[in-house]
From TrEMBL:
PANTHER family: TYPE II SECRETION SYSTEM PROTEIN K, TYPE II SECRETION SYSTEM PROTEIN K-RELATED. It is found in: Cell inner membrane. The lineage of its organism: Bacteria, Pseudomonadati, Pseudomonadota, Gammaproteobacteria, Alteromonadales. It comes from the Bacteria. The chain crosses the membrane at residues 12-32. Belongs to the GSP K family. This is Type II secretion system protein K. The keyword Transport applies. Its main location: membrane. It comes from Psychromonas marina.
Amino acid sequence: MRSKPSLKKQQGIALITVLMILAIMVTIAATMTGRLTLSLKRTEGLIFSQSVYWYGQAAGDFGRMILNQDLDDSSVVSLDQNWATPDMIFPLENGHIGGEIQDMRSCFNLNALAVKDGENVRAVPVTQFQSLLEALGVNDYSAETIAESSRDWVDTNDVSNASQGAEDSTYQARSVPHLAGNNLMVEVSELRAVQGVSQSIYEHIAPYLCAIPSRDQSINVNTVKIEHAALLYALFENDFDLPLNDFTRLLEDRPTSGWDTVNDFLESNLFDELTFSSEFKKYLSVSSEYFQLNGLAEFEDRVIAVQILFEMDGNKAKVIRYQSGGLK
C-alpha cells in the first residue's frame, strides 16, 4: 500500500502536467488567433486597396464621360463647360472620387521647343518661351539660358544652337553626370534637370507649363486663366508692343462661353489696327485635343492619386497616359 506522501506527490506531478498542457494549448490558441487576425487584416487591406484602385479607375471613366458629353456637339472648348468645374467630388459607398480636369492647351507646351530654326531665324516657340520667362520675373540672361537649354533638351540632336544652350557635354561635367533628354518631355518636372532651372524658378514657372505628346504650340484663348495672362502676352510680345495688363483685362472681359473663333478673339478692341498673319494665328486656338485629369479616390481611409491624360479622337476621349500613386 502506497504511502500518503507518495500519492500526493503523484497528484502534484499530474496537476503540473495538466497545467503545462493547458498552457501549451493556450499559447497555441493565442498564436493561431493572432495569425488569423493578421491574415484577416491583410485580406482586408488587399480588399480595400483593390477597392480604392477601382475607385481610381472609376474617376478616369467619369472624367472621360464628362469630356465626351461636353465635346460631343461642340468644337469650342471653354470654361463654362462641365469638365471645367473645379474640385469635383462625388460620394460613393465607403469613400468618394474627386478631382479636376485641365485643358492642356491652356499652358505653354514645352515640347513645342523641339521645332527647328528657320534659315537664320530663331524658332518662334523658343522666343515665346523666353518672353514668358521674362514676363514671370526671370532675368534676361537666365531666361535665355533656360529657353535655349530647354530647346536642346527636347530636340533630337546633340548640337547646341546657341552659346547659352546645353547638351550632353554640359551635363556630363556635373557632380552627378547624366545626358540631355534629346526627346520630348513626358512631365513638366523634367524641366528641373535642365541647365539654369533652379528649384525656386521651377516652382514659380511650372503652373504655366505643360508637356503634351505634340510639337505644336496652340494656346486656347478660352481656357487660359486670368492670372496666367502672361501666356498670351508671350505670344504677342515679340511682334506687337502690347502691355501685360491689357491681356489681363482682356481675359477678365472674356465672354462667358469664350470666343467662337480665333478671328473673333483677334477682333477685340485690344488688337484694333493690328494685322495678323496666318502663321501667327496658328499659335492661337478656341479648342483643345488634350485634357488631363488630376484625380483622387478614397475608400475606407485608403487614398490613391491618379493623373490621366486624355486625347480627343474625334468627339471621344481616349486615355493615352495613366499614372497613379499615393496608395496607402
